[in-house]
């Protein structure tokens, strides 16, 4: 079958929507089954409390390995074939999760499904970079990051809804259906956006050299780390939200769901606003503004939490502070991603893979830290958020220093 390619540097709405649906696979598969952990502990692990956390570790390990491998492969084979292969792996692994009767087999199937799901994390970003740069790329990336940011917030609620209607295995049956529909849609409609003449020959030494080159490239690494630490902050909020809002602040499940929905709406609004501003305001300035506002909100959250003001006595204040932080992230991730890819269109797959590996590793790290900390106030969450925002500031300072050096070297 001949390879199809988009002939002009534009992306139609249907393709943006499809990339958004594919991007959603990772967050949905990560968080949708979290409400089922206690039941899965009983059925698969003989009642061993917390055992299901291992399945999440298997998933993140598969994502890291898959993204690291798929980037160079997609730079050699194009975007379409690896995406189809990833969807097949994700679907097969999800079938295994839906029918597995043993804990070890379930973990193995989660790892396999993550290897495939990694394609849906890496390749949409690479596809965007293939066909759009600058403000146009930032606008599309804002829409994809919107999906990536909102789905982890909504996925646990969707999982709880499924559990209300049936067995926890239904969650993975839904994942199978999603994977099959994605596979058929890509097979029928998705063109390959990477021209054959721009593809890079695959070799182990070449792959290592490309990754080493990206790691040594300070503008890429600083922007990639900014994006990754924004995910660190977002996943810190998602991981600790049930403990903070239900157990500490006393929210009912309904109130918790309403707040999650409102917060998702705020994130959507900010990401959409970012997408509309990129044609009028420089990406770097938008990124600076998003980080600056994040600092103000994070410092306020930390100070008021440590002072005992933001807590059970004033739950509305906690909600406002958290919403301000997550809203600011809508201006950080999309712009940092586009800035990271600016000079790496020829190896967008490898660049996206390295960024995704760092992103999911840091996101998993924030969840691991908060999963082992007792909550008597929102302070642990505020501290972790402050660490993430502080790292964003440090990386942004590094980015500006690199840009100043580059400008000075090109000055007459």
TrEMBL record:
Spans traversing the lipid bilayer: 12-30, 50-71, 83-105, 111-128, 140-164, 170-190, 219-238, 258-278, 290-309, 315-341, 353-373, 379-398
Protein name: Bcr/CflA family efflux transporter
GO cellular component labels: plasma membrane
Record InterPro entries: Efflux_drug-R_Bcr/CmlA, MFS, MFS_dom, MFS_trans_sf, Sugar_transporter_CS
Record CDD domains: MFS_MdfA_MDR_like
Keywords tagged on the record: Cell inner membrane, Cell membrane, Membrane, Transmembrane, Transmembrane helix, Transport
One GO BP: xenobiotic detoxification by transmembrane export across the plasma membrane
Family designation: Belongs to the major facilitator superfamily. Bcr/CmlA family.
Keyword Cell inner membrane (UniProt): yes
Membrane topology per record: Multi-pass membrane protein
Residue ranges of every copy of the Major facilitator superfamily (MFS) profile domain listed in the record: 15-412
Subcellular location as annotated: Cell inner membrane; Cell membrane
PROSITE patterns reported for this sequence: MFS (PS50850), SUGAR_TRANSPORT_1 (PS00216)
GO terms assigned for molecular function: xenobiotic transmembrane transporter activity
